[in-house]
Amino acid sequence: MLSRKVWPLLLTLFVLMLGVACAAEPEVQTETAVETVVIEEANEATAEPSGDQSESVVEEPKVTQAEPEEPPVESQTEPIRLDLHSRTDPPSLDPSLANDTTSGFFIGQMFIGLTTFDDEANVVPRLATDWEVSDDGLKWTFHLRDDIRWVRRDSDSGTFEDIGPVTAQDVVYGVTRTLDPATASTNAYNLYLIEGAEAFNAADPSAENIEELVTNLGVSAPDETTVVFRLTSPAAYFPAITGLRMMYPQPQAAIEEGGEQWTEPGSIVTNGPYTLAEWNHGASLLLKKNPLWIDADEVQIDLIGGPIVEQASTAMALYENNELDLIADPPGWEPPLADMDRIQSDPQLSQEYFTAPRLCTDFFGFVQTKPPFDDVLVRKAFATAIDRVNIVENVAKGGQIPAHSFAAPGTLGNVADDMRIGGHLIQADYADQVAQAQAWLAEAGYPEGDGIDIILGHDTAEGQIQLAQAVQAMWQEAFPQADITIESQEWGVYIDTLMPGSPDETKPHIFRLGLCSDYPDQNDWLPVFTSESGMNVTKYNNSEYDALIEAATFEADITKRLALYRQAEAMIIDQDAVIAPINYYTFNRLYKPWLTKVVISPVGVDPIAQWEIDWEAKKAARDE
After folding, report:
1. How many whole angstroms from its chain centre is CA 151?
2. Prediction pTM value
3. Nearest residue to 293 via CA among 178, 162, 181
4. For 508-537, how does the pLDDT look when each residue is reduced to its tens digit (9 = 90+)?
5. How is domain 357-586 classified at the CATH fold level?
């Protein structure tokens, strides 16, 4: 039986590898060519997930330069492909607009930012080579490498066009575009540390002073390889934020030319190890290795992608038929809950199964502008009448930990080991929880749930259906007179429905979501519920909470900052019951044995460019 006590976590426990250890960081390659380079490819492999891949023969990339001294050399090679599935169409491949893990997975393979995280969740340079901060902590100067290129792949010919170097101005444009109120990015609040960011983002796009607000924005490019940020207050964690996708450099010309379609194949311009080759909306998505990537010679996998699979059971069948190399979320489904017992007892599948702690929390949120959840007693009652131990042991079955707070263990400032917060959510005897929940609901005027008529919303994942059904049964038993209906929506539609700007009449009363950390700090978690947050799907509005989060954001003393975060957790869990945390996530994945090197990111996006496949073993398993 899973212990109710939360296990202690160090970030190093998130450093997870299957197979051999991660190779050292490759040396920087110095670019010598000065002419535009076009890479040509032949017979591009399709995005179909199955079939005889030996028929997908791709010509070795041919480099053509102006007036070459010798003819280009051609050779035949077979593309090494990672077959994976997506749970849905990515709602957006735009770094400023994406707000979900599926979109983030693909964006993270195609674009890079100033920084990233190493295998121990430490911030390390990526587009930046190094940086320094002023003595007062308000001015951050980042120095950029000059050998990262923007590329566009032509969908018809398969050629790669070198658009030019990624410059400091591209970083300024990306930050400015995310903050531009006309962009309507739900992630803009992450950048409010930057001087002038909040004023610009909150302005009317048609305001007369909009240009002045842009001019006053605290980001500038004094030259092509230097970006300077001015902050409103010291923030030691600022380099972690510069690695978030909403701060990625962005290709201004491509965006202005392509408009809303700029992320489609043939139009998208990227700067990472991969770019978009095919996107058959609703059917499949395929990424192609970028031959102009600075470390292209170190990237073994040529193609990444496969089908969009609406059901986890379908993905599992494809995996067991060797048509998928892994089952993982993101970008697809975790192993189906119905198969977890079989997976863990099967001699072969148990060897391919992988689980470890993950910086995510699963929760139910209450839309506070929809009665009866405008009443804190009703929210407390429903949050308490959930048997979390039962859920992780008999529904999720993946080693998850029952959750009584918001931020997952391993996050700076989390209170997962402090049962003084949210202790009423995980009591020694679940019957005591039910009694307390019933008392709160009766006090609110709904004895035994009489008069309650609500909708519980979730996406179409099979696991979420089972979770919703289990919780619905718990609530019906605790509140027998309540009318609780379950409704589901496809992921992209579901996310749009929950956004704060969507009409309340289309929203469920309660919804299931999870939050995964982009960087291991409470500043990545708690601001979600501030009144101005574009991700405040609960529509919680508490000026005291807003002030608390603002104070924590700009507090330089770490002891005081942690105390402020603890106050904030107590406010959203105990005082106002903004959410009902369910469990702290784990990674639950299946990997084929021919994936010989798999590096799993503790935060951010899995770095597929570092993975390797034993191609001959994969072909043999598939009878190719």
Report:
1. 24
2. 0.82
3. 162
4. 999 999 999 888 899 999 999 999 898 999
5. Dipeptide-binding Protein; domain 3 (3.10.105)
